[in-house]
């Protein structure tokens, strides 16, 4: 009788996750990352959409796929401030007030983080430190540090494609 061996290919991706604290808007952050890292991030046609109960959040996503090193960069805004979902009555003469916008987070474990930079492809520690140093040099970047994505409860929110 013939025996067959199955090889389990682990689908976990190799990527590094960097947390960025900054007061910049997402388009300005993408522009400065392009300038300082010499890449060409562009806004994705589709944002990351998540249903957080009473809020439908749209997180802006910027992407750069580096063809030479086979490395992908994703800039994701961590915070979304938007209105609560409401069912509007069609019998009303006036539109109902939207109410106060509610703040939601892509990664709730890091509420103080403004952006995440996901770099797909395994990076050597010295290359990662060089990348962190180059981003830290950007004006208006308060701080940047690496995050262990395996420790995140909401790491499934980082599945981008």
Automatic annotation (TrEMBL):
Protein name: IPExxxVDY family protein
